[in-house]
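agent> Task received from the user: take the single chain below, predict its 3D structure, and emit structure tokens. No templates, no multimer pairing.
agent> Plan: (1) validate residues, (2) run structure prediction, (3) serialize to tokens, (4) report one or two observations.
agent> Step 1 OK, no nonstandard residues flagged.
tool_call: predict_structure(input=
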Amino acid sequence: MIAAGRDTGAGREERPLPPARLAYDVQTWKEIAHLLANLPMSLAGFTYVMTVLFTGAMLTLTVVGLPLLALGLLGARGIGRFERGRARMLLGVRVDEPSPLPLRRAGNLFQGMWLVLKDPVAWRTVLYDFIRLPWGIVTFTVVFTSLFVLWPVLPFVARGLTNADRAMVRALLSPSDELERRIAELESDRGVVVDTAAADLRRIERDLHDGAQARLVNLAMGLGLAKEKLLEGQADDLVAAMVEEAHGEVKLALQELRDLARGIHPAVLTDRGLDAALSSVASRCTVPVKVTVDLPSRPAQAIEGIAYFTVSELLQNISKHSGARSASVEVWRVDDRLLVQVWDDGRGGARLDGGTGMRGLAERLGAVDGLFVVDSPEGGPTTVTAELPWRDRTDQPRPAR
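)
tool_result: status=success, residues=401
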């Protein structure tokens, strides 16, 4: 052991030396192991990049090119995950895992593939694997030689080389920032919103064509026949029957137009808010529904509308499929989130992957940074919880009529 202090001369204060330690401690051996493993790992990564990604890039003019390139980028993400784990175990580098790609929100296979092809995390891993081959050769050669030639200074050499490794891992394998994740999610959500809007427009067109429009055509034909009968001087009772039938068609057409307008955006929601609107939709459910809305104020119109249509579709599912005897709807606010919970005592078994309805609701909420959770064991009960961001309402609602 080295003495704990030394004589520094008259008038000088003695200072203790740094504590003695072994040059080859556990961390040093971990660093040496990391540097020796750089060569096989860099060879494997470089071979993967040049084989899979280069082949995919060369075949982009064919049908299999882009899918192969996308699969190669997904594999590069896996390599990056392994390298982060190796650096964490041997170098003590704590690097957060990047957020997973939101592939479930992609509207179709091509949107998902495009999301992978634009993934910056995967492309930075490709760059990491590409430049690591010469570095792996250098580190392996230096460390392997130093084991027999430069043994006394090897700990310092290993520390310097692994510091460069730490810098590369932090620069190329860590998530750059939260902005990348949000951009990827928003791009995916934009496709979901566009597809949802297109589906809604097709539904409105179909309802108009098959419902109110067809009834109005029948009405016009009936009134035309009644007019001809009057001009021909036929019996008043026949004309009266035709007019009465036309009147019935008018009432049915008006009801269908009201239902269609309610499906687009109900007037009661605009005028009186979620409490009245949800009570109205609950009254049309075939199961008794208890509605509880506890909100200090009204949220933004878009958030209010999504909450309304979410509950409306869930109550329709309860009416059609649940076999429930009772149900409840609760709406409340916690901090900057709007929470909606729909419960029923039906047979259960509802799943997000069980059909397009639940999946569509989850995608619609995800498009506005919301959450959608289904808890529905076989035999029931079913509890569906929706969470939406709270945004303050900027307009003043019109007075109730």
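agent> Step 4: summary for the user.
The beta strands are 289-294, 327-334, 337-344, 371-375, 382-389.
agent> Done.
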